[in-house]
Amino acid sequence: MSLSSSGSTKQAADLLKHYSKLTPEAKQILYIMAVMYEPTSKAMAMQICHTIAKQDKRFLVFTERTFPSHWQNLIQKGLLVQTGSTCSCNLSIVEIIMRELIAAELFAPIALAVSQVRPLNESYGRLYFRGLPHLLCYIRWAIYRHDLPQAEKYLQAYQATNRSTGQKSNVGTLPEPDL
To answer: DSSP letters along 59-77, please?
Structure first.
């Protein structure tokens, strides 16, 4: 085992240790961020928390005073990774959290709330993604739902949008072989 993979394993173990000690409130925020997958602002995450708490009694209600302290605690523990004014779930633990959500049947209500607050854009019968992380979010959802044809539709929509806007995309293509 190389030194870097040993360090990565230790980091993942430390993150899981922190995760196991979280309060239910902090776990709920982390659940939402794991489902979203893409970097999100604190305000957007809080809005999703409010939406899901209204729809499903298993979820807790946050106030303007309680949410920021949980958010900051998740950043300090490394469970949320901050990039500018947004955060995302640490990729070292995101899939572990997702498996837990699916087993507990919490994935679907969270995905519904996320899609209501931050819907997929559609115009003239075409889907538009805000970028690669947004696309990956929806492809992951389709995979978790065992709907591979939908995942393929998302990928095709992303590629078509990039072609029509002149952006170069290598998503879904294989690199050229070195000869």
So the answer is: SPP--TTTHHHHHHHHHHT
CA dihedral 117, 120, 124, 125 (to 10 degrees): -130
The helix or strand, by DSSP H or E, that contains position 110, with its residue range, turns out to be helix 107-117
Whole-structure pTM value: 0.82
Phi, psi (degrees; rounded to nearest 5) at 163: -65, -40
Question: Taking 50 as the threshold, does the pLDDT of residue 157 lie above it?
Answer: yes
Q: Encode pLDDT of 164-178 as tens digits.
A: 555 554 444 434 444
Structure tokens at 24: 């239910």
* CATH class for the domain made up of 19-119: mainly alpha
Whole-angstrom Cα distance, residue 94 to residue 35? Answer: 8
pLDDT of residue 5: 54
Contact between residue 87 and residue 80 where contact means Cβ atoms under 8 Å apart: yes
Residue range 69-79, pLDDT digits in tens:
999 999 999 99
In angstroms, the Cα distances linking 22 to 26, 158, 169 are 6, 36, 39
Closest CA to 75 of 117, 113, 33: 33
The H or E element containing residue 43 is helix 42-55
Helical (H) or strand (E) element with 5:
helix 3-20
